## 1
Amino acid sequence: DGGITQSPKYLFRKEGQNVTLSCEQNLNHDAMYWYRQDPGQGLRLIYYSQIVNDFQKGDIAEGYSVSREKKESFPLTVTSAQKNPTAFYLCASSMGQREKLFFGSGTQLSVL
Amino acid sequence: KNEVEQSPQNLTAQEGEFITINCSYSVGISALHWLQQHPGGGIVSLFMLSSGKKKHGRLIATINIQEKHSSLHITASHPRDSAVYICAVIPLGGATNKLIFGTGTLLAVQP
């Protein structure tokens, strides 16, 4: 079945540690997105990529980094510079920039 | 004030009831999304619409561009409809990377 796979489901970060969240899609979509969800707030865009080897900052990119070396994969690294990383992270993809979004099941990141 | 407002924030219904969730926005838009987030966290796109009305099974979405308002209706509600329903808009001239999300409506359907 086609879809988006995020892993792990739960992740814990220690102080000063970088952690990487995985996002893989087999929908052959060009565009991929990373969103952060905090309680009581709407989803906020961290980074997005419209094509392989290219990505753009979203509204809250500070403390995060991404890569897009393959069409299927768009990993997100939460760096030690992100001082408040506890949140639910969602990866999404779409065929084009104005098309329906497909979401993964999310990763809950917590700080130890 | 948020650019996308949903009401109600929380809704409890009895199985079989007709449910309406509202979304109002303050910007001009090119399209509006309705999304469903289940307790496990994953999100499913229900509708994307820019005018009129769309129907899928027991779900109906309507939009009034002039009034900057959209509604999501659920007919013959069922406990499996319990989820958070999220409205999101693409501003005029924007694309998916410019989506503005509402904070969601938490729906609980009791048997």
## 2
Amino acid sequence: IAGITQAPTSQILAAGRRMTLRCTQDMRHNAMYWYRQDLGLGLRLIHYSNTAGTTGKGEVPDGYSVSRANTDDFPLTLASAVPSQTSVYFCASSDDQGATYNEQFFGPGTRLTVL
Amino acid sequence: SQQGEEDPQALSIQEGENATMNCSYKTSINNLQWYRQNSGRGLVHLILIRSNEREKHSGRLRVTLDTSKKSSSLLITASRAADTASYFCATVAVRGSTLGRLYFGRGTQLTVWP
């Protein structure tokens, strides 16, 4: 593994189904993030984690949950998918130390379609 | 919202020309970052400029930051067809519940014609 990997690459999901998007990084970064990208709206932060064991809500957290059991993995779960969650999802990580916020490294994305 | 806003939304130029994209934001920042996204791909970090810096260079990229005007610009010199992509600015807040979070603008779509 080099950098950040996401799985699956794409998925078509029926509304009401549960779905977990996977994200793994091998850079030992303390911070990880989930964004969604919709046409014309740019990237919006869903949830973040500053360090293993902690998570926080971003701009658009409703309908999503995350966990950070260890440094490397940061899965995003849609408990009951709705069509408005159709989007491209990006995971990212960064090596933030105290008040020094650094660049984020992005995964290749997961294209999710909810029908 | 404290997200950055890029201008223009779309830019079309010939190879060899310079491309300038601007970004404005609303609140005090820790730093401002520029990212590039090729169609169907993830974002790639280009350059980070901190609030106490005014200008940074990286290869053909030049970024300026004017905190008094809450604005930044990205200049790509001697553009190439391979520079065709979407370019995003993103800001990191300095205080409050959004401390440390990265907020993206909607991007500038740059097309460089051979």
## 3
Amino acid sequence: GQSLEQPSEVTAVEGAIVQINCTYQTSGFYGLSWYQQHDGGAPTFLSYNALDGLEETGRFSSFLSRSDSYGYLLLQELQMKDSASYFCAVRGLDSNYQLIWGAGTKLIIKP
Amino acid sequence: NAGVTQTPKFRVLKTGQSMTLLCAQDMNHEYMYWYRQDPGMGLRLIHYSVGEGTTAKGEVPDGYNVSRLKKQNFLLGLESAAPSQTSVYFCASSDGTSGLSPYEQFFGPGTRLTVL
């Protein structure tokens, strides 16, 4: 089967750096995506890694290593507004534009 | 552009009642999806569509039906609501050929459904 695993909760301090990991078991996929969801809101797209390596978008970076079946989202200079749930997702080779979703990581930021 | 819109935003049903959730997108996307999200959990795919007139089952299709008669609209129906269908329902759309990620999904604001 195909599955993605993320920590259920991560706590960090405002201004710090935090890494949210995503490990997966899948026979093959096109790329790793990350979405952010604030409480009561809808998921919004953050980043996509088609190739191995680091992709940087402002304070957020995402990393993929296919050989290690592993990816992570790195958030720098944490702000209180970054308190949200973060989901990793992949599209499997045999899917039809469906995404396979992780269960999400709730990021709690303390002042 | 409004993006993806959903109606209604909130609804309370009694067990056995039926209802239809409407999703509309104005981005000319081919692909549309219906998800449910239960408290503290991730997204589970109910049904999806890869184009006008097509539908397919996702991970948790039982108790739901869908239709995609027009490209911009994707309807989710509950024929006989059950308390287990209490959830937040999200519609999403995607275009396989554009965007930061060809698989980026754009979500509506959600419908909060309670079945008593």
